[in-house]
Amino acid sequence: MRLDVVTIFPEYLEPLNVSLVGKARARGQLDVHVHDLRDWTYDRHNTVDDTPYGGGPGMVMKTEPWGEALDAALADGYESGAHGPVMVVPTPSGRPFTQELAVELSERPWLIFTPARYEGIDRRVMDEYATRMPVYEVSIGDYVLAGGEAAVLVVTEAVARLLPGVLGNAESHRDDSFAPGEMANLLEGPVYTKPPRWRGREIPEVLLSGHHGKIARWRRDEAFRRTARGLPPHRAEPPRPDRALRGLRLRQEGPRDPEHPGLETVRRRPILAQAGGRGRIGGCCVLAYAPATGGSSSAG
Q1: Which of 128, 160, 192 is the last residue of a domain?
Q2: Do 190 and 72 have their domain in common?
Q3: Of 80, 90, 98, 230, which sits most exposed with the smallest number of CB within 10 A?
Q4: pLDDT value of position 252
Q5: Cβ-count burial of 20 within 10 angstroms (0-12 exposed, 13-18 middle, 19+ buried)?
């Protein structure tokens, strides 16, 4: 994969030389090119911004330097044999960056990042390059930073670790929180390592059993529990952690959780009913949140 980053602070991208991303670069799995936007300015102050049309506070990044810088990055990439560029614009108003989007971007051969400063980039730049390649406007959270470089680091690390051969164990990311498949919409459960006893605290006995089926079920149960406890209060609806829950109904038990108004938490095993019967899913004991509406509610 090729990565191009156009920025007015190239030194901000130095972390791309360390850890997994740095090793991926050294092995040739990731081809990173950082460009200084000011190289495409021609006044003595290397100006990259100007006042906004319509008035208002702040400054807006100019079209000319961005246009020339992106043209140069594209030309260099095509000349080196790269293909299929995608432009990634970090912005608080963009599409939320999720594990699902990280997977989508990891399947692209070439990403071009355009981290902005000030009030952002003149809109015409995104509109222009959207005629040449897909443009992803991406937000890493509901907050504002001084610039988009930190977001580039976040997205790059999330994407790079999904590339074949970057992680030592190719299966490692399959159990990550929110990973597509069984972990979609779930948080990963707790993990443990040696020693088995530390300061009077022991690891769960099932992890010492050697029974892979029981261990897998335990990990699945813990993922449900952590997801339920970690559900942020602003979520419009609880996660839908398992397709197996579709068509099932949970009878909710337990008091309301003061940390999550409007939700009830199940402190005991929920009663799962389908077609008037009772049952369990794979023997799992599930801790879950559900809308605090009283009575039964659908899950899945």
Answers
A1: 160
A2: no
A3: 80
A4: 39
A5: middle
In a domain, 172, yes or no: no
Q: Do 47 and 148 share a domain, yes or no?
A: yes
Same domain, 237 and 284: yes
| CB count in 10 Å sphere of residue 91 | 19
Distance CA 27, CA 40 (A): 31
Do 240 and 148 fall within a single domain? Answer: no
Q: In what helix (H) or strand (E) does residue 223 lie, and over which residues does it extend?
A: helix 212-229
- 47, burial (CB in 10 Å: exposed 0-12, middle 13-18, buried 19+): middle
Which residues are identified as catalytic? 92, 119, 161, 176
Say whether pLDDT at 67 is over 50. Answer: yes
Domain assignment present for 168: no
User: Percent of the chain, pLDDT > 90?
Assistant: 63
Mark which of 127, 144, 160 sits at the end of a domain.
Answer: 160
Q: Domain containing 35 — which CATH number? A: 3.40.1280.10
Residue 73's domain comprises: 2-160
Q: CA 64 to CA 169: how far, in whole Å? A: 45
Q: Helix count (H) and strand count (E) of the chain?
A: 6, 15
Please tell me whether residues 26 and 95 are part of one structural domain.
yes
3-class SS of residue 20: helix
E strand spans, the chain: 2-7, 31-36, 49-50, 60-61, 85-96, 110-113, 135-139, 197-198, 201-202, 248-251, 263-265, 271-274, 277-279, 289-291, 296-299
Question: What's the whole-model pTM score?
Answer: 0.71
Beta strand pairing call for 201-202 and 248-251: unpaired
pLDDT beyond 50 at 55:
yes
Residue 38 — very low, low, confident or very high, per pLDDT cuts 50/70/90? very high
* Torsion angle of the four alpha carbons 123, 125, 129, 135, in this order, in degrees rounded to the nearest 10: -50
